[in-house]
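FIELD: query
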Amino acid sequence: MTATTADNPLLQNEGLPKFDRIRPEHVEPAIRELLARLNADLDALERDVQPTWEGTVARLSAITEPIGLAWGAVNHLMGVQNSPELRQAHSAVEGDVVETLMRIGQSVPLYRALKALREGPEWKKLDPAQHRVVDASIRDAELSGVGLEGEARERFQDIERELAEISTRFTNNVIDANKAWSMTLTKPEEVEGLPPSALAMAAQMAKQGLAEGAPEPTPEKGPWRITLDAPSYVPFLEHSRRPELREKLYRAFVTRASSGDSDNAPLIERILTLRREKSRLLGYPSFAEVSLAAKMAPGVPAVEKLLGELRDAARSRARAEHTDLTEYARRKTGNASLELKLWDVPFWAERLREERYAYTDEELRPYFALPRVLEGLFDTAKRLFGVTVRAANGEVPVWDPSVQFFRMADESGKDIAAFYLDPYSRPATKRGGAWMNGALDRKRQPDGSLRLPVAYLVCNATPPVGSKPALLTFREVETLFHEFGHGLQHMLTRVDYPEAAGINNVEWDAVELPSQFMENWCFHEETLSRLARHVDTGESLPKPLQDKIRAGRIYRAASMSLRQVYFATLDLELHHRYQPGADGGAGFLEVQKRVAKENTVLSPLPEDRFLCSFTHIFAGGYAAGYYSYKWAEVLSADAFSAFEEAGLSDAQALSRTGRRFRDTVLALGGSRHPLEVFQQFRGRAPSTQPLLKQTGLLETQELESTAPMM
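FIELD: result
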């Protein structure tokens, strides 16, 4: 049964998606109708395109917006409410959407008009944001193959279509692999060491698929179901006292989506082959060069220089951390020859952290009830940026009952933005990780009115168990602050052109700056005091515990840094030097082994296939861009150091510095080059010194590391 055009919620052109009405059967008819309209509008535009802002950019924006809103809602649901029916509907039209988007990117009349605009008399009348949009549009057209003709153009289009289809399959395979594997434990000794929250969640998970009439699982008696979803996987590795069960879980995790119908290995080779071919068609030596053409980093050598500097700072310290951990485990077990396995490291690292800093995640959880954490987060935003957040649940339709909706107002009380928050893990329908996406971009309408920006903030935190509110781990609190940072850049933009509003047109390696910057406030004394209050007593988190959290921030910092450098180096190597098809189609595994030798303390297992679930680079936006996390971490640490210099206990100084951060990094979005924006805020070029200092690695660096990174 298909929905008629009149009652299809995906065909609305205004406002937020009607999530209470959108069904998989709406997708295909709506998208096909919108594509037909768009292609007809494109025909008309190409016939009489004018080399002016209104005649090119504004007109193109107006005709592409309907498909953008509808397809954006569909893709959002693919991430948060995945189902076989939705996948089928998405797959049916994905190729046609890609084809139409390619048509826009490869439109010679539009490209010529944009170049004529840049070279014509109107150029001087445009503001810097408009210049950035036009420059980026010309660059993106060139990277979309606008200069290709004949067979080369057709081949490029085939590649883009296939890449879109494969990346969707890659994500679906990971979701399916996560869903397909679980470990049900029935004996109390099998869950020895697990904290109460993990036991409660495991018992709750065991209820799914329970035979009719079977006893109700309880945290005390089980059964307990352990899954590959982070809120289940991480606590088990950190707390289970059964090394053989940790090993079983770890091996399942690092081999996800690497066998059977969900095997992503052939897809990886295909993706890398197609990306390399695409690069050659565009005249670039590698896909990494294509990726960096639209990023802040000036080229592969600059990225490798940064990664090398961070590797040198972290590697020897990471080895020392591992030796320290091994000696600790030997003392505790009485086994003087014990060698830690990969599945032992999280367990012993957590024991050493608990002993050294004398607190546990479980001890902290009661202080981080989600409602209170949100209150503290919003209070921080008000103190720093002058914005007020209020709950607006029930004002808009949502896709799951746990989703909340909020509105944001400025100092005068005027609404300037809104956002959805989807906080909890739902392994059966929601992909892992956390992210922010735009639901609506800020836009100055033709009638002069302003469309306010709206964001999706999606996390995968531990859901509430029983009648208590969700109690978060400290890492989940950091994740919430991180995604809210992305949301702030989307919502506090003052750019009126959607093409450069919020995070749009921000170079990918700078886009993590606001998010990583916000994480710093989780360690700020006043902020922590406000957001961390006991769920039962309302008491603040005791100062000794706060001090331990701050001291623990640099615990195993070198190991964590080296891990990120490993991922980033592997990503760059696969997209810059690797020749796909080598070694009979499994060559990427050889690259992983080689890169691991220089970037890990413990070598991966021979059967490690973590690349098969590395959606960031094979199905997300981080291909040849995973280094962006470290690049932006340098920027965010340096930005936070401005607040440290102003005085973290000086409310007025924090407010002044916060307003400057809002007026530059958060407000200017993609309207200026990120280096220019950063320098406008900081008064100088970024330096690696604050990050190395923040992570306790500065003393291992030579003096030259304190120089600007660009």
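FIELD: remark
Residues 700-708 have pLDDT under 50 and may be disordered.
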